[in-house]
Amino acid sequence: MTVQIAHSGPVTSSDEKARAREALARNSLRTEPKAVRIVVIAIAVAFLTIFVVLPLVVVFAHAFSKGIAAYLAALAEPEALAAIRLTLLVAAISVGLNLVFGLVAAWAIAKFDFPGKTFLITLIDLPFSVSPVISGLVFVLLFGAQGYLGGWLRDHDIQILFAVPGIALATTFVTFPFVARALIPLMQEQGTQEEEAAISLGASGLQTFFRVTLPNIKWGVLYGVLLCNARAMGEFGAVSVVSGHIRGETNTMPLLVEILYDEYQFVAAFAIASLLAMLALITLIAKTVLERHLDEGQDPSDH
Amino acid sequence: MTIEVRNLVKTFGSFKALDGVDLKVDSGELVALLGPSGSGKTTLLRIVAGLDWPDSGEVLINGEDALAQGARERHVGFVFQHYALFRHMTVFENVAFGLRVQPRAVRKDEAAIRARVKELLDLVQLDWLADRYPGQLSGGQRQRIALARALAIEPRILLLDEPFGALDAKVRKELRKWLRALHREISVTSIFVTHDQEEALEVANRVVVMDKGRIEQIGSPDDVYDNPATAFVHGFIGESIVLPVEVANGTVRLGDRPLDLAAGGLAPGASRLFVRRHDMLVGPPGSGAFEGAIRHVRNFGPVQRAEVALSGGQTIEIDAPRDRELRAGDTIGLEPRRYRIFAG
Amino acid sequence: MSAVAARRRTLPGFGLTMGLTLTWLSVIILIPLAGLFLKSLELSPEQFWNILSSRRTLNALRVSFGLAFAAACVNLVMGSIIVWALVRYRFPGRRLFDAIVDVPFALPTAVAGVALTALFAEKGWLGAPLAALGIKVAFTPLGIFVAMIFIGIPFVVRTVQPVLQDLDPGIEEAAGSLGASRWQTIIRVILPSLAPALLTGLALAFARAVGEYGSVIFIAGNLPNVSEIAPLLIVIRLSEFRYADATAIAVVMLVVSFVIIFAVNRLQRWAQSRIPAR
User: Which of A63, A105, B140, C149 is most buried, with most CB under 10 Å away?
Assistant: First the structure.
């Protein structure tokens, strides 16, 4: 690995000298000797390769270890298809709920002043710091046979735990902050002047939101939905606790990975895992693109 | 359309932004709210627009209680300090916004909207920018688009918050003249907020000087400059010499020295004497109310500015015409051509 | 606030959106969490203490907290090196590696779990050479440590990176012009400026690793008292219908996480108050 020092175009010798002197001056103050730089870069790259790149590569290597036919066959299993369907359904429910919540909460928090705002944001952040297993446990304690509402649910024949509602609830809990947290800082930064202008021009509240606010935050909404969706599809711990692992019924893709792996069906386990890994990679690429849009969205001449 | 506010009070936490403000604006007037930052002028404007709400008091637009209506129903054109143009819409769509959000029953058809927007863009002389986005405009252009957008809804009154505040000096001067001419053309009752006295005096029919949430004086531009009602107005508008004086037994004293100034009708006690720099006339030593020695002289455009040490010990700056010969070291007499004494 | 001001806000919808926000927050987050604490109150102090002081619980907590802290420390050091390389140096593939840092955020934990296990198993790409050296990673506490390092990297990098990027180059030039060596400048000028971000990153990586489940359980071996993490013990107790045990362990972990968020919030506020407003 080498360190590139940017030089472009033909340079005269006096230019070169001046530049060399300038580079020397800057180098001695703001950077380290070349040997140090190479060592630091080498450590960083080696660490990221071992701990991040290799695990990613290993997923695909194992998934295709018995050839592409075995890979496709594993994905075509009814159990796999059921897991994919359930994962998409659960993600759609929880992303939908959190999208609506995120927009509503961001409007209340970013566009108005009220006491306790910081505390409210901390509460919205809570799920980020709760262990996934505990996120599932709280719903078992509420809806389980011995839970607070367990008896009532049994009497009315309503199934929440070990069924889609429980999985969707636990996933919604875990992904709760994503959309709101993507929107609140963005909307706070944008202020309320455009909305005030719209109102004074005669727009209703909904017209103001859909014609003025939403177009201004659309990249932020997409960003929040993207991260929310990635986590919703990939959630394991919380879903594992509430799902009951009923094959073909309450297994999401991450849960199926575990089951197949425990049964030594490595190709099948890694085939499902490779789909989730691709989801992660697509998410990261889309995230990078969106971050560029979000940076451009800020109008520097408007201040 | 008239605007009337009665006894408006507004506090933010412990800060009194408006402390009992009364103001009446007649139909077709162009009124400036002038004051330093924090004087309450923007708060007053926002309350009239329905963007803020007073703690108590009344706002009447054309005699109707405006506080019973939200900003949306008041039909007030508001031009924001930083314009608040919708950044994702073209100039055309910005101006058309107020027409497009009207209830279906009264909304104009597309052709009528296009015609009206075109008319407004012509009025602000920016029809060639219709397809641009706000981010692609200069400050002066944004300002005029913001005005066109506010006028699109045919507002009953027009309110402008620091309309030239964010522009550089040259553009600001051009736009001032333009706004005055535009007002003459459309003659909608207007109030604008400014902290720039030159702007207020040049553009407005009437000037409202505010400080600390109160109105200090309301008058024509000439009035507030020539006959300031309070010490604040005298100090804020134009450049003044301020000297602490003592009023007793019908005479005015500066330190130990009695001044040859009329003190008729003034309450005895510590007071302040206000004189404009150019109202201090220079004469030979012994003439006039004051005497002093010139420290140094510097030319300042059409005038020369002299720093004078008064015999009482204070140092003041006066402006004199360039043809009057002043030299450092000279002793001179000074006579205020026009002055005001305010108690306190 | 007077009646007029309280009734009127310029933009519409505050009452509605705030009401919905609080309702939804309560239904999804606050009531379920409160249920957990309520459940733990059903236990007498002795019962609570007996659960926590049992050998298996203590060992699980020790494994989770101890290894999480060790992994967070490794992340602090390696994260700093990565940030320095990404922000200060130009090298081929820099943008790619910058993007890759987020993989542990985005990769589902179960996928990370099976991948790390395959990689570090005795016949795995890295497990085999390590086994030749007599080091066994998978199915030992060392495996838990590795998984916790994986999961914690982005927390340190993404908290410190923006701070280093925004650091005024002037302070380094000033230190250099005052005669400080490069090493002195880094230790005495740059490091103190980064300290709040480094501590925040450490705390976040630690908090995440303590609660981590999916990426750990595959590689852990899950031997009680040796390589069993606290979240797994909660799951086991639940499957044994020993809800009281699960609740007690969960409450301890939750309280620790809340203390950490509180500390991080304080730290952030303190760090912001040190920086003059720009």
Answer: A105
